[in-house]
Amino acid sequence: MTYKLPLLLIPGLVSTRLLWESQVNDLSDIADCWIAPIPPYDDFRTMAREILANAPERFAMAGHSMGGYLCFEILRLAPQRVLGLGLFSTTVERDTPQISRRRAAMMADVKTKGYLPMIRENAPRFVVDNSRGKQVVEMMVKQAFEVGQSAFCMHQSAAIRRTGYDDVPGRIDCPTLVLAGKQDKITRTSVQRRIAKQIPGAEFHAIDGSAHMFTMEKSEETNRLMRRWLIGQELALAA
Predict the structure, then answer these.
(1) How would you classify the pairing of strands 82-88 and 176-181?
(2) Per the count of CB atoms within 10 A, which of 9, 83, 106, 116 is most buried?
(3) What is the residue-wise DSSP string for 157-175?
(4) Structural domain total, the chain
(5) 139 contact partners, CB below 8 Å, separation of at least 6
(6) 80 within a domain of the structure (yes/no)
(7) pLDDT of the chain, 239 residues: tens digit per residue
(8) Residue 189 is part of which domain span?
């Protein structure tokens, strides 16, 4: 039987396994993919503990946006279980006051405008304005419906409360891939490049023609980079 590396894929805010659908389909020949449902709590440490309790004993993991925060929490809790790390559209920095106010405004809009109308209004900021971006917006709305209003508000509260993860990158000692969308206006490419520079041996790529949601916008390029990262880990384990 061919060994497949356990790969834990952690979605971001109001995202589900649909965020990773292309990666699961394309990489299943080399990776045993596990999608982590994001527990409905308002504290990332509590979420990370629940994910770890149900995860494989040892695994590579990739987290998108808020899922990256959970990767950092997992690295604080159980670094010995992590074989490889993918950080996508994420940051180690805590929210600025401006970002916290934006999160609070979105939660307020849930009450005044409705949950899905608020999602539909904000989603275009996360994608490139083209035909594929419009398709991804519809996929984002479907994921938001599945996640639900209550979990959305708890996750936003957790994001506002987090203290940041500046202490984590320098201690990471597993193969690390940092990916950004070149046109991302939510988490700037420069922010993710700085993370990569802090992690010993990390590989960084900015995917052109995509914004925050590049796993769906530019899935083929994302899959190519992830495949190379995963194959490198398999070779290291076989050595």
Answers:
(1) parallel
(2) 9
(3) HHHHH----TTSGGG--S-
(4) 1
(5) 18, 216
(6) yes
(7) 477 999 999 999 999 999 999 999 999 999 999 999 999 999 999 999 999 999 999 999 999 999 999 999 999 999 999 999 999 999 999 999 999 999 999 999 999 999 999 999 999 999 999 999 999 999 999 999 999 999 999 999 999 999 999 999 999 999 999 999 999 999 999 999 999 999 999 999 999 999 999 999 999 999 999 999 999 866 455 44
(8) 5-96+153-238
